[in-house]
Design the sequence.
């Protein structure tokens, strides 16, 4: 499905990102490095922190059980895994709930929607999913169809405006993991924006080809765009671009 459009065409060249934002991204990379440092001292990693105390790791279950939610920012995330995903231990899904969404932003209106969507005080915006490898390091970013997370589905430009609201600023289940994930979304903010725009274009073309159907509930469309990432390599390139 995602092969109908080139994701690369939606991603900015590093040099094209304003310097002020690249400095913010660099600060986020430093935050992530600090989280890694304190976790490694204890022989821990970001994934192990969210699984701790959760019993056996069961596919499709949420970790922690009731998700992680910040009552001030209204950001939320959980970690889980799917069967049959090669080279992935699991992934984080990241969201902002209704109370954290700026006024004036609304989910996509789809007159022929075939399933109810969270709305009003229950509205929720899925931002990005983060693939993790077996060693507890991020290996990719990806977007998903609406049904995957039962989100409200905010258009890309609205989701991009919501993205800076993602901040988990407390210690449950792990202060380093919460800080790390918040920083990751800042480090890769421009790439996430590109992934969201690519997502919308892919789905708009699919909907145009199938008028009257609700492609947002099509179980054959799950992952829409996937971007492999390597934080150390990207951080080095970011530093070089700022010299």
Sequence:
């Amino acid at each position: 499905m995602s092969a109908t459009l080139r994701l690369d065409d939606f991603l900015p060249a590093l040099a094209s990102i304003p310097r002020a934002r690249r400095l913010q991204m660099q600060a986020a990379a430093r935050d992530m490095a600090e989280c890694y440092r304190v976790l490694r001292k204890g022989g821990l990693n970001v994934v192990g922190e969210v699984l701790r105390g959760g019993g056996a790791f069961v596919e499709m279950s949420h970790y922690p059980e009731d998700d992680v939610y910040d009552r001030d920012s209204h950001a939320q995330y959980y970690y889980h895994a799917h069967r049959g995903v090669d080279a992935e231990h699991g992934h984080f899904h990241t969201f902002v709930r209704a109370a954290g969404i700026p006024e004036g932003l609304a989910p996509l209106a789809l007159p022929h929607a075939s399933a109810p969507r969270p709305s009003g005080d229950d509205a929720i915006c899925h931002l990005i999913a983060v693939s993790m490898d077996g060693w507890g390091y991020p290996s990719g970013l990806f977007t998903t169809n609406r049904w995957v997370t039962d989100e409200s589905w905010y258009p890309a430009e609205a989701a991009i405006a919501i993205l800076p609201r993602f901040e988990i600023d407390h210690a449950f289940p792990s202060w380093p993991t919460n800080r790390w994930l918040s920083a990751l979304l800042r480090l890769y903010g421009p790439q996430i924006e590109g992934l969201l725009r690519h997502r919308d274009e892919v789905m708009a073309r699919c909907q145009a080809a199938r008028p009257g159907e609700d492609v947002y509930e099509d179980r054959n469309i799950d992952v829409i765009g996937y971007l492999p990432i390597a934080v150390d390599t990207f951080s080095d390139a970011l530093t070089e671009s700022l010299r």
About this structure: The CA atoms of residues 19 and 242 lie 7 Å apart. The chain has one domain: 2-241. The radius of gyration is 18 Å. Helices lie at 19-41, 46-51, 146-149, 156-162, 175-187, 189-209, 231-241.
